[in-house]
């Protein structure tokens, strides 16, 4: 059995009908690949359609306001992807005159484009024989070949890249790469893979050795950090509130939020908040403060969990830049804030 022939035969029968597969335009392929990093197709597809409607060319994306790009991205998470997307669009539009690099090496130099994305674009758009390796590929190869090398260490990354490269169909690398990604996403799934329907079942080592659930192997994750957020939500008689842009590097850079007080532990006592310098800089002593949520809202990111309290501030006098509640939808905000807005203001 030749691995790539079996895989492509399966793909031609069962491939998913996805809009970015109907083109070899590198702009659309690049956009889809950036969006689908750490994102399921079902979640990413509506965003992709919104983006190509708003930005039909790389020049349109390059000329857009970053705040608008982030607003359209809102809900996809990992916002650095959107900022890098915008930065790279401007570089391609202005410096490269709208022409994408046509090979793996030059594609990988673009900001936000790593080995996987460069391989996908190079193979699909320019027929370069360079193999993709993502979570789906790790899973398929580790199970089929019975490889227990951790996929998140240097040795594992090199081993799987070399193996993937040795298996690719040099005559149709783009189709092969899309086939193995689809195979991992729809058949060789993380949980409950469809082994009874698998064309590789007779030769899969993980199936033979009953190790499907333990592959691929990952070394223990970095310890998750707990952070405690306290948002000050102004509720004024004029139906305004205060939003501030997160300008520092880190999570949610470029997004908007309510004034924030971060504490070392969860706070239930309003006096602790009222005595904080952030509160005093925005509100006078006449402001009343009420905790909105009984239990903290827990928002989980990859390496940190945010325990969040929303404090409602009622006052006629505030020192911050106020925003009309009717205009809040114009601002890009984290999902944590968007969910609160939907509950409290809308």
UniProtKB/TrEMBL annotation:
Q: Does the keyword RNA-binding apply?
A: no
Taken from the record, one Pfam family name reads: HhH-GPD
Cofactors needed by this protein, per the record, are: [4Fe-4S] cluster
Molecular function terms from GO: purine-specific mismatch base pair DNA N-glycosylase activity
Q: Identify the enzyme class.
A: hydrolase
> Cofactor note from UniProt?
Binds 1 [4Fe-4S] cluster.
Enzyme Commission designation: 3.2.2.31
Alphabetic keyword roster: 4Fe-4S, DNA damage, DNA repair, Glycosidase, Hydrolase, Iron, Iron-sulfur, Metal-binding
Q: Which reaction does it catalyse?
A: Hydrolyzes free adenine bases from 7,8-dihydro-8-oxoguanine:adenine mismatched double-stranded DNA, leaving an apurinic site
Recorded hits in PANTHER family, A to Z, give: ADENINE DNA GLYCOSYLASE
Family recorded in the similarity comment: Belongs to the Nth/MutY family.
Job description of the protein:
Adenine glycosylase active on G-A mispairs. MutY also corrects error-prone DNA synthesis past GO lesions which are due to the oxidatively damaged form of guanine: 7,8-dihydro-8-oxoguanine (8-oxo-dGTP).
Q: What is this protein's name?
A: Adenine DNA glycosylase
Give the source species: Tenacibaculum geojense
